[in-house]
Amino acid sequence: MVAQRKIIDQVSGWLTVYDDGFVDRTWTGPPQFKFMSDPVPPHRHFIDGVATHDLLIDDESDLRVRVYLPEVPEPEKLPVLVHYHGGGFCISQADWYMYYNIYTRIARESRAIVVSTYLRLAPEHRLPAAIEDGYATVLWLKDVANDKAYEPWLSTKGDFNRVFLIGDSSGGNIVHQVAKKAAGENESLRPLRIAGAIPIHPGFARAMRSRSEIEKPQSPMLTLDMLDKFLKMGLPLGSTKDHPITCPMGEAVDGLDLPPYLLCLAEDDLVIDTEMEFYDGMKKDGKKIELFVNNGVGHSFYLNKIAIDFDQNTSDQTRKMIQAIAQFVKNH
């Protein structure tokens, strides 16, 4: 007789963990939201001014990326945005519709090539696995810049002197960790240069609840249950949210040659207090960091296509955030 699997944990319609270690990421929430997590096939022809394709960049680790190319005049060299997706280190993929919908817009409006990493997911691959994947993508780009690897769009169009790190939610945590690691190895990364870092709603938190976690409204994109369970599954075994990956607030970075940062926050984000604590710490250490805050919206609001289509403020705030990102890239 075959023993039946038992559920040992679930997270808000996104993820179910069984006692035999199997993790089911089938969406079980309201069906009208399912399309946002559906994969979008790559297309090498331009659709609305952007083409995409997927690429294996490391045979041994099976590390893959999705590349977005905006349609621009032929002679122009383009900055490169290295994107790390969110999902609490436990869910989502680089080809999900919610990312495709936004990063085609960012590629087009920033006139930049986007390279989005398919990160390993927890709990099967706990941190620092996703950070290792994020930095491995930077090292691969260095090889492309040095003509040791070839990717037609990047090799012919990429400006490797203007590489930016960008990430949503837990991807914002990865941005900071990769930026720190790159800062210690700037010389060895040449001719690639990290020109800027753009954490968007990074998942910074403490073991003790912040005031904003208690007082701000929960949203479909982030609940306290998601915050607690995803980070527990994602962090190294035995760690709490006070781990440096999720709690870099107050961490001394004055000795690191970090690139300029654009920290994008949302007024109603559950973790805005700890995000602001990070901002204040970076300013105190003399780092170049700009702050952009969207008003009247919550965590990862710009990924919610339904809200963008039916709520004017969400639509307006999404447009303003993309414009801020495009301007930051242009300025650096």
Automatic annotation (TrEMBL):
Belongs to the 'GDXG' lipolytic enzyme family. Pfam families: Abhydrolase_3 (PF07859). Residues 81-302 form the Alpha/beta hydrolase fold-3 domain. PANTHER family: ARYLACETAMIDE DEACETYLASE, CELL DEATH ASSOCIATED PROTEIN. One of its GO terms (molecular function) is hydrolase activity. This is Alpha/beta hydrolase fold-3 domain-containing protein. InterPro entries: AB_hydrolase_3, AB_hydrolase_fold, Carboxylest/Gibb_receptor.
